[in-house]
Amino acid sequence: MFVRSGSVWPVYFDPNSYVPNGLNLLYGIGLLFDSVMISKMMHWLCGVLLTVCVAESVRRFTKSQNLSQISAPVFFLTPMIFNQVSTTYVDIGVSFFLFMCVYALDRFFASQRYKDLIFAGLLMSMVIAIKFYMLAATLGLVLVTVGYYPRLKKIPALMRILFVLGGATLGLCGYWFVRNLVLTGNPVFPYMGQIFGTAGFNNYDNYLNESGMAKTWLNYLLWPWNLTVRFKAFDASHWIGPFFLMTLPFCGWAIKKTELRPHFIMTFALVHIWFFTTQTARYLMPALSFWAVLSFAGVYIFYRRYYSDLLRQAGQAACAVVLGVLSLAGAYHYRVQFIPLAGVWSQHEYLMNMERSYAAATWINQNLPENAKIFNIQEVRQFYFKRDSIREENMAIFLDYSKDKTPAEVIRYLISQGFTHILDSKSVDGKTRRQPRMDWVALAEGDARLTRHLGRVISKNIRDVRYEYNIYEIVGV
Description:
By secondary structure, the protein is of the alpha/beta class. The chain has helices at 2-5, 22-32, 36-62, 65-76, 79-84, 91-111, 114-130, 138-147, 149-152, 155-184, 193-196, 204-209, 217-221, 223-229, 243-247, 251-255, 261-276, 285-305, 309-333, 338-341, 347-354, 358-367, 392-398, 407-416, 440-445, and strands at residues 373-376, 388-391, 421-427, 451-458, 467-474.
């Protein structure tokens, strides 16, 4: 959207254009060159660099080169990490910059050089500039800083550090808050609209409970088990794998080490933020890098303290099992991707079989004029659409456009907003549900005075629910 318009200015009726787009702008560079590979390279680099950081931290804390070399593939092959490095989810970028932020903060307390503290703040601003949700992670940074208080011994020194850290953080990400405040009156638009009196995502009760498990004491105590064994409740495509649960008992040894306290504090804070907000698995990703360092360090401490030939053999066998399981899981996850690599499918065939909306996007790109503006009833995936498209759900966030209106009045309003076509979609299994505000759709589509049916496309995707798409031209009132 930004690439087509040549501007990063927010687009009305699209709340996603108001959220921080730090990493999105980086992979937008690839889209300027019409290269999906360059775009995804940004995410791949974040994953690789985060893996290097974890491995280097393991080496620094354990002084074991062998363990460091083992930690890299174990962490990178974690299904959640391995999945995100090849997609355009932004959580991998958040994880990398947050890990580097804590590293820079740790360097500051070791060196007392304020440039390290400022650098930590700038890295934290990158985290927030990627995702508003990570404002909550500042709690972890404050706790890490307070954890160093015994070294400082003076409250004024602690307050000065927090002030510099906060100022540096706002230095970069402050742009997003100021922009939204000026445009909408809400610095965190489209969130918290009920507080600032604006439109936006206000259905927090549904959002906080739509994924994961009930927030009970039992689930609180069993969350590592649930996340590993009952992972489908948290998003099956972002499984954390078996390693973290297997090594959880060893983290106790690592927590006793003062130099590893920041990793424990960040893990503790991020896990609690995740559990008590939205339990979507990928929202926990920023905690995995800190947790991984604790796990490897704990295993190493236990190994050195209770070393024996039997323990060495058991450790080698455990490493082989974990690497084997993760490698097989990775190969299974990308099993379909091997087909085009083997030359069996062309790029077009691959996208047709894998991307749900690609068939509809292809039809639209070939048959609709370049100046078409589509009112998108249901489809979330708009990446391959080369025509302007606004989702009905997003428009409904800004205003109740269909309230007390006849289908003809809704069509008249859409025309006034420049819409020329309607894209309607529904799953072929018949399970598509619609809000009452969309009752006008079927009536308008069945009235030849309002719309004209142009085409029907059924998706061919093999790994997702198939969809039927119908494209209508808005002909008037």
